[in-house]
Each structure stands twice: as C-alpha cells, then as structure tokens.
Design a protein that fits this description.
51% of the residues lie in helices and 0% in strands. It is an all-alpha fold. The protein folds into two domains: 1-58; 62-99, no CATH class.
Length: 113
C-alpha cells in the first residue's frame, strides 16, 4: 500500500517535472531576480533605518550640557539615570555649557560656572 503511494507520487512528480521543463529557465530567472530585488530592497531599507537612528541619537544634548560631568561613574549631576540616553532628548534641566571643562582648565585654576 505504502509502496504504491510512493510509486504514484514519484510518477506524478516526474510527469510534472517533464511538463515544467521547458519553462524552467524562465522560472529560475524570475526567482533569481526576485531574490536580488528583495536583497537590495532590504539593504536600502536597513540603511535608511540606520540613518534615522543616527539622526535620533544626534539629538541627545548631554554632551553640550553644563551639568555633564565627563566621568563614566556619574554622567550627569542632575539627571544621572537619563544622561546620554534617548530619554534625555527633551531634558528640562538642559543648560548649555559656556565652555567645555578640560583637565588643563582645572590645573590652571579655572572652573566652569
């Protein structure tokens, strides 16, 4: 019983392959170009999404804030949990720094006000 079902399925498959055989180059060509088009579309979609993410990250104002400490232990003295994250984009405590504080400014006795 199982042998007859397998034999019948192989016969049907062989006849189907013989029937499709003349159109096989066209089918393969269509599958190839569909795969290439999908790959290119996916690549450009990911590039566009990556550019949008980078633009979003460039909106984070913490690097130019007066309250940014420059230390990896305490990134911000006002909002340490939000500092340098996407949640800090509309930070109500943002204060533009008058100048960036460097180690040489501390050595020379200058301090950021």
């Amino acid at each position: 019983m199982i042998d007859e079902i397998l034999r019948l399925s192989f016969v049907v498959l062989a006849r189907m392959i013989l029937w499709i055989r003349p159109a096989l180059p066209m089918i393969c060509c269509l599958l190839l170009w569909t795969t290439i088009a999908f790959t290119l579309w996916s690549f450009f979609k990911n590039i566009r999404q990556g550019v949008a993410n980078i633009k979003q990250l460039h909106r984070i104002p913490c690097a130019d804030c007066a309250y940014a400490t420059g230390s990896h232990l305490l990134k911000c003295s006002i909002q340490p949990c939000l500092a340098f994250s996407e949640d800090a984009i509309d930070c109500p405590d943002f204060e533009p720094a008058s100048f960036k504080r460097t180690d040489s400014a501390r050595v020379n006795g200058l301090s950021a006000m």
